[in-house]
């Protein structure tokens, strides 16, 4: 085959017709579960102001420092959104959603963009579904967010996952912890990887996230944040764990869990799957009590999660979960001759109005080729129309699965297919 002239950018993937059924089935599940949990959908633009993401996600994060697709146009600085929490926070503040009363329980599905090195489960355009509860401080909100995330995976049949949780503290606990962490790493700083040495001054918590071999012995005995929590934050964390137990949501505590975005405070969590390879996080999230204020709103506590759809698809494939049923076409009209084609054009709408999916051949193929096409389209039934059938106003209805044929008037065919 000739080399195509154009192709997608690296790390960006077409979702072709054979794949789309799975995406639609998954999206249906997300909408249904979100509704059951009383969440409303929100759709924000694909592009945001660069400053919103820089401030929201954090200047020192990998996302902001090296993975943004950003450009200028006139005086405006655009960025393709790398995630949706900062955009949702912006929309909450911009449209005064607090005035709707109560907490805002919002969810979204859509493409995100990060200029990462592509590998299995890591793309430059990928898709997330996520949810945010804005306006609630109570541990019940943290647990409801986790329960919604888990409900979606349960419904799909992905159950061999591990929920890791931690508390990353409030600013006061973080200050004390950062000091202890730096005291721990300082004597061996030159032994650490270059990335970790770079993080030492700017963001020492992220050293805990390092995958570099030489860092592991030092990370292993590093102090843990849960020993530095203020009383309030420790109580909050204890209550989250208690509620998870009451709801029978299994979890493991990982005191070294830090997330790659800077806005987290208190609860942080990640859902890990053994079916994903190196990029093993199906989803993650946590509490971000300072973000709404950071993007210009009143102090408002909030908690949320987001999950990668491509990673979910990989897990489904590994586990043999089909997600979508095979698409079937109810009726395919096979025609012989011009008159029959005209008849088909007139009768297709009647089949469709009756709620059936229906199609025909548009390009004058032979009967044999049309039958093959009907098969390829997974047609349940074929109506065969030729000169004789038109004269007698009786048409052959073929049941493709049973390989049986009967002759009926069109009205009878319609009755047969609808009932
Ligand atoms: P995150 O951990 O950066 O969190 O991303 C959430 C999930 O998106 C990841 O666990 C992964 O499944 C998927 N993901 C991230 N990057 C890629 C990529 N390059 N290719 C494929 N999948 C990817 C957030 O985005 C936060 N906004 C979550 C949140 C919501 N926190 C509070 N509310």
From TrEMBL:
Location of this chain's protein in the cell: Cytoplasm
One Pfam family it belongs to: HGTP_anticodon
Record keywords: Aminoacyl-tRNA synthetase, ATP-binding, Cytoplasm, Ligase, Nucleotide-binding, Protein biosynthesis
NCBIfam families, sorted: hisS
UniProt keyword annotation of Secreted present: no
Assembly notes: Homodimer.
Boundaries of every Aminoacyl-transfer RNA synthetases class-II family profile domain copy: 24-315
Entry protein name: Histidine--tRNA ligase
Family under the similarity heading: Belongs to the class-II aminoacyl-tRNA synthetase family.
